[in-house]
Write a structure and sequence with these properties.
Layout lengths: L4 E3 H23 L11 H17 L6 H15 L2 H18 L4 E3 H17 L9 H15 L6 H22 L1 H6 L4 H18 L3 H4 L19 E9 L5 H13 L2 E7 L3 E8 L2 H9 L2 E10 L27 E2 L11 E2 L5 E9 L2 H9 L4 E4 L8 H9 L3 E7 L6 H8 L6 E4 L5 H10 L6 H12 L3 E7 L4 E3 L2 E3 L4 E4 L4 E5 L2 H12 L6 E6 L5 H14 L4 E6 L7 E5 L1
Parallel strand pairs: 9-10, 9-11, 11-12, 18-19
Antiparallel strand pairs: 1-2, 3-5, 3-6, 4-5, 7-8, 13-16, 13-20, 14-15, 16-17, 18-20
Helix pairs in contact: 1-2, 1-9, 2-3, 2-4, 3-4, 4-5, 4-15, 5-6, 6-7, 6-9, 7-9, 14-15, 16-17, 18-19
């Protein structure tokens, strides 16, 4: 279709088509994760972010550029998950700032909007890196500026932009060596490209794959799946209001595609799920697209010994999120996180919201004074709206947020600007141990500013290591990793690779300890036997007799051990 202008209705169709294409390709995008860990989630985060906006767009009764812009911006902003999702929401935010007062969009307006989109997204990231979604977005904006009013119609304009986006994406491995070594392009950039292609397909009325003769980079091709069942994954799904028979069928089909023996027990507001799969991270990510989850359990399982998967007792579970001082009561099942609202309590000066991912870790955070816990982590990135809901449940003048994951910090930062009646301070904790150290550093008689300074300083001295397994073959930093290998991952790189969990954990710790180390804290996961964890702690004490060693039950899924060295 050749035209020079489009209206709000046409743009809405393009946006929805872009979202659908991203949704359909999200698992391929997840496969582009550099580290071969069972929690690649860029595609999932971007999809959940854009689908939050889709819901608002589809609810518009009076379609015009103003209502469409508000729906896209607000929906994606509140639904943003993970760094990729937050950046995507900021791209939409900047774009809609320019178009919201227009009746129609021509080449000039599109070009201005794309410039503003990139400018807004870059401002949201403190230290932008080349070779990421930002690079691809900037390439789109630069190409738009270069061809603005130099081509005859929007059809040519859009195609030229997308061709250039593909070229930029294919060059991302040259900009980020870690991408080149892993043999992948940037996953966020791939996600953005899918949105653009879907939008163009709606505009042109043609099959986008037929229009664009360029194929996707080979690294983005879907891998052939082998059903090698090695892990049992159980969880409790709190259903979204839109969860119906069709959604249940879709989820069941997915679980059976990537696992064996899938069973879903619908109890009204919740669904008990159990499936045997070699990729529990993929299972968890998929379930998150149907609601919030809790009671996650992942443990090794012999594929030849699959037994009935659900507990026989049907008694409804009533476990509630923990609170430091206050009591809690059950909230509606449609709540975005583990449903709970906090009973009224006197307002205090300072309070805490923290992201946690295991029963033992929940108890530790609560004992240290956290007021409200958000269930989340590497495989379960909470949204900006989840953060806002948590903040609203803490009756304090100043609320500190502990994201406890580097992929959640941007969503926490974004929540600051959506709450007006409280001071919100995000302590940029990238790991669970950093969050614990921040709480230990907190002084109730100090000012919020002094506490912020002290906590930020304290977490900089914390080294974190995490032990998990590889979901595919790869090569990173000279390490040859095979699917099924155990990996010890440090703050910035993989420190150890082996075949035995505890041996790999010990090797990882040896790489973390130096002459300044005084304490080693070990948090064992939900699939690790306490006695075996105790043996590991004893081995660490023997190896480092002058360093204090502490062992805690963390109860986290996916990661056998989380270790901190300070």
């Amino acid at each position: 279709m050749q035209s020079k202008k489009i209206d709000a209705g046409a743009l809405a169709k393009m946006f929805l088509a872009g979202a659908r294409r991203l949704e359909s390709e999200k698992e391929i995008i997840n496969e582009l994760n550099v580290f071969p860990v069972p929690d690649g989630d860029t595609g999932t985060n971007m999809s959940l972010t854009i689908m939050s906006a889709v819901g608002e767009v589809e609810a518009i009764t009076d379609m015009n550029m103003t209502t469409l812009s508000k729906a896209i911006s607000s929906g994606s902003l509140r639904g943003a998950r993970g760094n990729s999702g937050v950046i995507l929401s900021q791209l939409f935010r900047g774009f809609t700032k320019v178009i919201k007062d227009k009746e129609e969009l021509d080449m000039e307006v599109f070009t201005q909007a794309l410039q503003k989109a990139v400018e807004t997204a870059y401002k949201a990231v403190m230290k932008p890196k080349e070779g990421t979604i930002l690079t691809v977005a900037r390439g789109v904006a630069e190409k738009a500026l270069a061809i603005n009013n130099k081509v005859d119609d929007l059809d040519t304009y859009f195609k030229e932009i997308i061709f250039h986006a593909e070229d930029v994406l294919e060059k991302t491995p040259e900009m980020l060596p870690v991408l080149k070594e892993a043999g992948v392009v940037d996953s966020g950039g791939q996600g953005l490209l899918e949105i653009l292609k879907g939008g163009y397909a709606a505009y042109s009325g043609e099959d986008v794959d037929e229009v664009f003769c360029k194929s996707k980079p080979a690294v983005a091709s879907a891998p052939v799946k082998e059903k090698i069942v090695t892990y049992e994954t159980r969880l409790l799904l709190y259903k979204q209001s839109s969860y119906d028979e069709e959604a249940s069928g879709s989820l069941t089909e997915y679980l059976n595609a990537y696992g064996t023996g899938a069973s879903l027990e619908d109890n009204g507001s919740t669904v008990k799920i159990c499936v045997f799969s070699d990729e529990p991270g993929r299972i968890i990510s998929k379930c998150l697209s149907f609601g919030s989850i809790d009671e996650v359990m992942v443990k090794p399982w012999d594929k030849d010994e699959i037994k009935p998967v659900l507990d026989t007792d049907k008694e409804e579970r009533t476990e509630k999120p923990v609170e430091a001082v206050k009591e809690v009561e059950a909230a509606p099942a449609s709540a975005p996180q583990k449903p709970a609202t906090v009973k009224a309590a006197p307002e205090k000066e300072m309070g805490f919201v923290a992201v946690s991912c295991g029963k033992g870790l929940d108890e530790i955070f609560t004992s240290l004074g956290v007021d409200y816990l958000i269930t989340g982590g590497q495989t379960m990135n909470p949204s900006t709206d989840d953060m806002v809901n948590a903040i609203n449940n803490v009756n304090a003048k100043t609320v500190f947020i502990l994201p406890n994951n580097k992929n959640i910090i941007l969503a926490a930062n974004q929540a600051q600007y959506l709450v007006e009646d409280k001071e919100i301070i995000v302590i940029p904790t990238k790991t669970i141990p950093q969050g614990i150290t921040a709480l230990i550093t907190f002084m109730s008689d100090a000012t919020p500013a002094d506490n912020e300074s002290a906590m930020v300083s304290a977490i900089s001295a914390v080294k974190t290591g995490q032990v998990t397994y590889a979901v595919r073959d790869t090569s990173i930093n000279g390490l040859e990793i095979k699917k099924g290998n155990i990996m010890g991952i440090g703050d910035h790189e993989i420190l150890a690779v082996g075949s035995v969990v505890e041996a790999t954990a010990l090797d990882m710790i040896e790489h973390m300890v130096d002459d300044t180390s005084e304490i080693i804290s070990i948090y064992f996961g939900d699939e690790v036997d306490e006695e075996i964890a105790g043996d590991l702690a004893a081995s660490v004490e023997k190896k480092f007799p002058d360093i204090s060693v502490e062992l805690h039950m963390g109860g986290q899924p996916i990661y056998y051990y989380i270790v901190s060295v300070e």
